[in-house]
Amino acid sequence: MIQVHRKAVTGILAATFALTVSSSTIAPALAADPGVTDTEIVLGGTHPYSGPASAYGNIGKGIAAYFSYVNDRGGVNGRKIKYIDKDDGYSPPQAVQLVHQLVEQDKVFAMFDTLGTAVNAAIRPYLNQNGVPQLFVATGASTWGHDSAKFPWTIGWQPDYQSEAILYAQDVLQNHPHAKIAVLYQNDDYGEDYIAGMKRGLGKHQDMVIKMASYETTDPNVASQIATLKASGADTFMIFATPKFAIQAMVLAAQQSWHPVTYLNNVSAAVPFMNAAAKAGGPSAVSGIFTTVYLKDPANHARYANDPGMKLYNEIMAKYLPGADKDDGNYLYGVSIAFTMVDVLKRAGRDLTRKKVMDAATHLDEKDNPGAYPGVVIRTTPSSRFPITQMIAAKWLSSDWSPAGVLVDTRSMSMAEK
Amino acid sequence: MSPSVARPLRVAIAVALIALLPAVVPSFVVFDFVYVAVYAIAILGLIVLTGMNGQISLGHGAFMALGGYVAAILAHRLGWPYWIGVPLAAIASGAFGILIGVIALRLAGVYLALATFSLGVATPSFLKHYKSITGGFGGLSLDPVTAPLGIPVSGQLWLYYVAWAIAGAAFLASALLVRGRFGRALRALRDNPIAAISFGVNPTYYKTLAFGWSAVLAGIAGAFFAMTTAYVSPDTFTFALSITLLIGAVLGGMLTFWGALVGAIVIEFLPLVAQQINEAAPSVVYGVTLILMMFFVPDGIVGGVQRLTRRLVRKTPSPLPSEPSVLAASMAVDRPTRE
To answer: Which of A10-19, A152-161, A182-191, B27-36 has the lowest mean pLDDT?
Structure first.
C-alpha cells in the first residue's frame, strides 16, 4: 500500500515537472494594438466604488453615461466604445491586479481615467512597459505632466494642485499683504502638493504662515486641529482638504467664532458641500470664502440656464442616469473628461493605433468641452502635457460661486514645478 | 490508508495543481495566484500564532509592511536584488516580531488584540512620516522581477514559481517546526496555560518564538507583495490588510495549514467575484458571503469539508470506517478540541 502511494506521489511530481518545463517555454505573443475591431473600441478604467473614496465612483458613472450617449449617435468613426470599469477600492495592489486583467484578458485598447495618485503610480510602470496608453488620470499630482520622458504613455487632465495653491498664495500677497496664515491639510501627497504650491507662491514671505495642522483621512473629525489653528491668532485660513474634512473645518471654525479670510481648495468647493456647511454652521461658515474653478458648476442652475454645454449635460444625465443627483460635480467631471477622450479618439482617426491616440492626446486644442468653465481651453503639446491649466478665482456669495477677475493660466507654473 | 501516506499524496496533488496551473489558465490569473501565494504565507503565520498558540494579532499588516518596505528600500535605493531583499525582510520582520512578542507576554486576549490593532493602524502614518526613507505617501516604485538569464519564461511566470517555491518552503518549515515538542507546547499554552506552565513549558520562550516565526512569514509575504505589485505605498499596507488576513485565516480554517491555502484563495478572489455578481455593491456581496460562511462553517472551509467527509464516511460503508481521523488529519496540526 505504502509502496503504491509512494509511486503515485513520485509519478505525479515527475509528470508535473515535465509538463511545467514544456509549457513554460511557450512565451505569449503580443498582437499589435488590441482592443480595436471594425465596430468597437475597448477602454478600461478603475474607480473606487467601495472604500474611503467611494464618492468619486460617480465620476465613472458620468463617463459611462457620456459613452452611451456617443454610442447611441453612431460612436466614434463608426466604432462603439465599450468601457470596462472596475472597483479598485482605492487600493494600489487591487488596481494593479485589475489592470493586468483588463490588459491581458479584456484586451483593452487603452486605460482611461484611473483615479487616485497612488493607484496611478502603481499601474504606470506596467502600462508603459506594455505600451498601453494611460489616458487622463484623475489626479492633480504634477508627476503626470512632468515625467513624460520616462512614462510616455501616461497623461493627466485636471489642473495640478500645486498651481492651484500658488494662485491662493498670490491672492493673499496681493490683497492681504499682512496676513497671518493658518493651514489645514491632509497628511498625504495631496495635501503636501498644496503646501508645496503655497510655499512657492509665497516665495520669501513664507513666514506669513504661522500655524499648520494636518489630519489623517482616518481621523473622525478635525475639531482639535481647528482649535489649534484658531488659537494661533491667524486671520487667514487655507483649507487643503477632501470634502468631508473641508465641511467640518468650515463648520467648526464658525462654531468657535473664528472668521478668518478663508481659501478652500476646489476639490471640496462643490455647491452641495457649501450648502451642507451652511446648513450645519450657519451662513457665516461659508460667506466670502475663496476658491478656484475650472469646470462649470452643475448646481448653479441660474448661471448656466442657457449654456449649451450644461444643456447637453442635463440631457445626458436625464436620459442615461435618471435619478442621480446631477448637481454632483463628480458626474460633470466624468462627462467632461469622457468628452476629451472621445475628442482624442476622433482626432486619432479611423485607422486607430495606440501611438496615434497618444499623438492626438498630446496635440489637444479643445475649446468646446461642455463642462469646462467658459474660456477654458484644454490644450497639450508633446512638451507641455498639462491639459487644463486655466482657472478663475471665485467667491461664495450666499448661494453660489461668483467668479471674480479673469481666467489665469498657470501653464508656466506647472511647467516649472517639480 | 495510513495518515503518513495520505498526507504526502494530498501535498503532491496540491504541488502538481500549483505547478500546472500556468499552463491552463490565462496569464492574469497566474498573476492573481502570485498574490494567493503571498496571502497564503502571511495567513500561515497567523495560523501558527492565533490558531495554534491563541495569540490574536489584528496587526499583521504591519509586519507585512516592514518586510515589504525593507525589500523595496533595498531594491529602490541600493539596487539590491530580491533574493537578498527577501531574506533580509524576513530577518527584520522576525526581529520586530520577537520584540512585539515580548510585549505580548504581558497582554492576553482582547488586550493583545487591541495592542496589535494599534500597530496596524499606526503603520500607514508612520510610513508617511519618515518620507526620506519610505518615499512618503507617493511610495516607491520597483523594477518588475525578471527571470534570470537563460530561463525562457516571462518575469510574471518566474515570480509565480519563485513565490510558490517560497510558500512551499514556508509550509514545510512550519510543519517541521510545529510537529512534536514545539507544537505541543504552543497548543498547551493556548488551551490551558497554567497546566502547561506547571508541566514545565516555558511560556516566554514559546510564545515569543511563535510571534517571531509568524512575523518572519509575514515579512516574507510583505516582500513578495511589494515585488509583485512593483510598488509600495502606505495605501498598500492599510489597516484593512490586517483584517483581510484574519478573515482569510478564519474562513480557511485556523486549525490546519490547509486553511492558509484555502483562505488565501478566498481573500484573493472573493472581492473579484463579488464585483462580477453585483457591480453596484460588491462590498455587500462580500459581507453577506462572510456572514453566511461564519454561520454555516464556523470552523472554516477546511473544517467544514472535514466534517462533511466524516459524515459521508460514516454513512457509506467504507473499507476503513474506524479511522475518520485520517480524513480529518491530512496536514492537520491540530483538531478541534471539542471532539
So the answer is: A10-19
- Same-domain pairing of A280 and A320: no
Do A148 and A217 belong together in one domain?
no
A197 located within any domain = yes
Q: Are A5 and B157 a contacting pair at CB < 8 A?
A: no
Contacts of B323 (CB under 8 A, 6+ apart): B1
Give the one of A15, A23, A122 whose C-beta lies nearest to B229's C-beta: A122
pLDDT tens for residues A182-222?
999 998 778 888 999 999 999 999 999 999 999 987 788 89
Instruction: Give pLDDT tens digits for A80-91.
Output: 999 999 998 888
* Distance between CA atoms of residues A23 and B289, nearest Å: 36
Number of CB atoms found within 10 A of residue B59's CB: 29
Q: In this structure, what DSSP letter does residue A31 have?
A: P
| Residue A72 within a domain | yes
Domain boundary among A277, A293, A309: A293
Q: Do B12 and A9 touch (CB under 8 A)?
A: yes
Write the residue in A9, A121, A187 that is nearest to B128 by C-beta: A187
- For A113, half-sphere exposure in the C-beta direction (CA atoms, 13 angstrom radius) is 29
Q: pLDDT (tens digit, 9 = 90+) per residue, A331-376?
A: 999 999 999 999 999 999 999 999 999 999 999 999 999 999 999 9
B235: nearest CA in chain A? A91
pTM equals 0.81
Identify the pLDDT of residue A371: 95
Contact B235 A96 (CB under 8 A): no
Asked if A1 lies within 8 A of B121 by C-beta distance, the reply is no
Domain of A119 in residue numbering reads as 34-158+300-379
Residue A372: strand pairing partners: A295
**Cα angle for residues A18, A23, A24 (degrees, 5° grid):** 105
Q: State the pLDDT at residue B139.
A: 84
User: Domain coordinates of chain B in residue numbers?
Assistant: 26-329
Contacts of B1 in chain A (CB under 8 A): 1
Residues in B 295-314 with any Cβ partner in A closer than 8 A: none
For residues A71 and B283, give the distance between their C-alpha atoms in angstroms, rounded to a whole number: 30
A87 and B121 within 8 Å at the Cβ level: the answer is: no
pLDDT band at A243 (very low <50, low <70, confident <90, very high): confident
A42, A58, A82, A318, B123 from A322: Cα distances, Å = 25, 13, 21, 5, 42
Local structure of A391: helix, strand or coil: strand
Note whether A280 and A332 are same-domain residues.
no
Q: Cell for B242?
A: 490586517
Residue A7 has pLDDT above 90, yes or no: no
Say how many domains are in chain A. Answer: 2
Is there a domain that residue A6 lies in?
Answer: no
Closest chain A residue by Cα to residue B145: A126
Q: Do A196 and A139 share a structural domain?
A: no
- Per the CB < 8 Å rule, is B137 touching A192? yes
Please tell me which of the candidates A86, A92, A190 has its beta carbon nearest to residue B275: A86
Task: For residue A391, list its beta bridge partners.
Answer: A408
Across the interface, whether the CB atoms of B9 and A5 are under 8 A apart is answered yes
Beta-carbon separation of A118 and B121 below 8 A:
no
Q: Do A97 and B35 touch (CB under 8 A)?
A: yes
- Chain A: residue nearest B29 by CA? A101
pLDDT interval class at B228 (50, 70, 90): very high
- Window 119-178 of B: residues touching A by CB (8 A cutoff) are 121, 124-125, 128, 136-139, 141, 143-144, 152-154, 157
Asked whether residue A16 is domain-assigned, the answer is no
In this prediction the ipTM stands at: 0.76
* Residues A270 and A309 placed together within one structural domain of the fold: no
What is the least distance, in Å, from the CA of B158 to any CA of chain A? 9
Q: Which of A1, A9, A104 sits opposite B26 (nearest CB)?
A: A104
CATH number assigned to the domain with residue range B26-329, chosen from the 4 options 3.90.1150, 3.40.1340, 2.60.120, 1.10.3470 = 1.10.3470
Question: In the listed set A234, A264, A293, which residue is the last one of a domain according to the structure?
Answer: A293
Better pLDDT: A28 or A153:
A153
Q: What is the CATH number of the domain that holds A57?
A: 3.40.50.2300
Instruction: Please report, for residues A47, A308, A360, the alpha-carbon distance to residue A339 in angstroms, rounded to integers and kept in the order given.
Output: 18, 14, 14
- A38 & A73 share domain: yes
Amino acid at A145: G
